[in-house]
Amino acid sequence: MRVAIAEIVQETDSFNPVHSGLPEFERYGLYQGREILEKVPGVGMLGAFLDLAQDELKGMELFPILRAWAGACGTLTAETLDYFESRIVEGLQAALPLDGFYFALHGAAAAENDDDLEGHLLEAARRVLGPDVPIVSPMDHHGNITKRTVENTDIIVGHTTQPHDPYDTGQIAAKLFYRQLKGEIKPTVAWHKIPMITPQDQFLTSSGPMKELFDLARDMERRPGVLTASPFPMQPWLDVKEGGWACLVYTDDDPELAVELASQLSAKAWEMRDQFWASSRVAPDEAVKQAEEADEGLIILSDTGDSVYGGAPGDSTCILRALVEGTLSKPALIPLLDPVALGQAAEAGVGSQVTLSVGARHDNVFNRPVEITGTVAAVSKGLTASLNRYGTAEIGRTALIEIGQVKLVLMANAGFAINQPILYTHLGLDVSEAKMVVVKTASNFQFFEPWRKGLIRVDSPGMTQSDLTAFTWEHLPRPLYPLDKLEQWEPGQN
Fold it and tell me: Is 146 among the domain residues?
């Protein structure tokens, strides 16, 4: 069996004013051709496929095309989408004839010239391969499912948990792909777009309404003839023409069952729509006060409005201001994107006292700069951090500024490492000594799990804030709950 493989993953925040390009992908490793077979095993959705191809899924001749991963950031430039399209098209054409294409994607990527990047690339792949060659795509369940993505794939598999386990999703998709290649299954899909968006507060699948919805999907997958069931609660900062939640169900040549279950799953999501807006967020000053008064640390302060893992720029200042103005008895760790202030601190040198205006370089809509005075405790040129199944991440130039108990790490690039303990330990800090740490994500707290004693969601303004009414929406389909009055909706075939 001749099989092409590729992976392109980026999550777009439409409200981030900084557009993104190939440098964001190069930071995590932009691999082509046979280099993929050396660099990617064990890493993410594509790495899971490669591991299974080596150990269990025998008889496949692989034609690796491209692996591009950038996490979350702003809208991609037109040139970046054009580059990806040419690489995919040329790679597929060079490998013809093919028996299948395993194409890992995020699902919520948008470019300047097409706000449905995944649909654009899948459509291009389908033009090369024709209607009969299987295309299977594992995706992040925060992706935006569109008509083009469904029509140009045979199977889409969404993540089953939040925090995500991309490796697990890649394995599920790989096994289904292999069964289809062998002629053991005939995937049949039914799906619905749901006219709603919801904030991130209830995105964890370990409790609350999201657990109930995802448990229902898992129950459906245990039924005979069901291949996969995937809710897609779209990440809520994607302002695109086909935006909104979706639910997909694939069966083995049983369209009636697929329709029945997709309708049930979609109706369940709509039924619980108000529950997804429940929030325990607190104001920044109160969050710092509660963390300080906690019996023991480490307390995670989730900067929901500046979630770098959701595409925010990483330069929100509201929690920093609360920390500096608060009364702290033990260290508080906080990262901040500010290459200008970083350069000034590095130039002053270790041991120097500096007064700097920091933050809000990009997000000057919801945040404003903070003036701080502190000591430059350390400067780092950066390093490459191993993130296990997440691959590697470049930690660029950083500087540690000590403002009393506030340990501020200035960064040149706000990448995946911004929420990793190594950001602090490589500058000489001991995480176990800190009382609180600010993480610029609303749900990926697992990296501080060895020290975590509590969690406080901070109601912080920013490009990923939970108050979705604060944004100016220009492209989402309307009416859409809760931006519009929409009291009734029933699943209907797309």
Answer: yes
